[in-house]
Amino acid sequence: LSNLNPVTPDVVTIDSIKYLASSLAWGAVLEASGSILHGDVQLDINTKLEVITFRIAAMMQTRQFDRAAEQIAAIREDMRKYFLEASDGLGEKLESTYVPFELKALSVDILARKGSPKALEAFYELKDHIEIQHKACSERSDGAGVAVWRSREQMLLSSLAAYYLRSQKIDAALDTVRELIRRNPDSAVYCFALLRILVLSGNFSAAREVLSRAAEYHNVTATEIHMHRGIILAAEGSFDEALDEFEGAILLDSRNTAAANNAAICLLHLGRIDEAIEKLEETIRADPIAALDEGLVFNLCTLYDLSQPDRAKAKKVILRKLAARFGRQGFNMEAITI
């Protein structure tokens, strides 16, 4: 942050926070946003809300959900007083009681992450708000506005699908992703999301149909085909064939940590635990910054416990040091139990 040489705290420092966020330096975002909010500089309402939004996003990214909820609760009353200026297209400024959409979305996501019974109602309230704004932009032929609200709708529906999955509401998650596909028929991302949920539901034949359509109609890579074919095969218990698919993905992309992790899981099911450990250790050695993901690290710790109980603690201590040095800001050290 010091290297960015800010000139005026309420302008350049905001840009600095945006830069830090784009670099995924969430710990630094927390520090910088705190210094701005608690500093001596008087911020205008719009700037203050923008800083708060980045601050709460950083808390979410570093898994400080309780702290994020406390921050939202602390500003809830003030949020009702804030407004952002909006134009009616004629140059006249109108007052709006809306806070930044991203802050509203974060508020809903916090409820969902904490398992609040109010989460679903909040999702649909925000969805209704999006539809109203989208319709208003359409009626005044505001193409840019339509695109913004369509993008926000996609973001919200994606969060809603994730909420349903965490709540084990598979049918609702499927319906939500299918709605995303209807609105974005050219998106391979949503097709693969549908495939993975179908796999979770045990509908492997439907998952294969989705993969076939994705390969035929979307611009997908061979790596993606290998990965998702492997996911289906592994879920069916065909670990030998699944391993071949994940190894095929690794051949095409040697730093595909998800493929390496999946391959290690297949090796475990095949009784080849030492090979599974070597696969994950090799992946971390090749690119520790990319590979130090909580899921991969947790799996490696489990493999140590199964195969090398006498050496597991020492190995995990090394993993903790690596995670502290190379892991992303907000890495959850609970993935490494010693």
Write the SSE topology.
Elements: H1 12-22, H2 26-37, H3 45-61, H4 65-79, E1 84-87, E2 93-96, H5 101-113, H6 119-139, H7 143-166, H8 170-183, H9 188-201, H10 204-217, H11 222-236, H12 239-252, H13 257-269, H14 273-286, H15 288-291, H16 294-307, H17 312-326
Antiparallel strand pairs: 1-2
Helix pairs in contact: 1-2, 1-3, 2-3, 3-4, 3-5, 4-5, 5-6, 5-7, 6-7, 7-8, 8-9, 9-10, 9-11, 10-11, 11-12, 12-13, 13-14, 13-16, 14-16, 16-17
Tell me about this structure.
It contains 17 helices and two strands. The chain has 338 residues and is mainly α. The protein has a two-stranded antiparallel sheet. Strand 1 and strand 2 form a beta hairpin. Mean pLDDT is 86; it is low at 1-12 and 82-98.
Question: Any descriptors?
Answer:
338 residues; mainly alpha; two-stranded antiparallel ribbon; 17 helices; 2 strands; 72% helix
Form type = globular
- H and E string: HHHHEEHHHHHHHHHHHHH
Strand content: under 5%
Q: What is the count of DSSP helices, taking H or I runs of 4+ residues? A: 17
Q: Mean pLDDT across all residues, rounded?
A: 86
Low-pLDDT segments, ≥5 res: 1-12, 82-98
Kindly summarize this structure in a few lines.
With 338 residues, the chain is mainly alpha-helical.
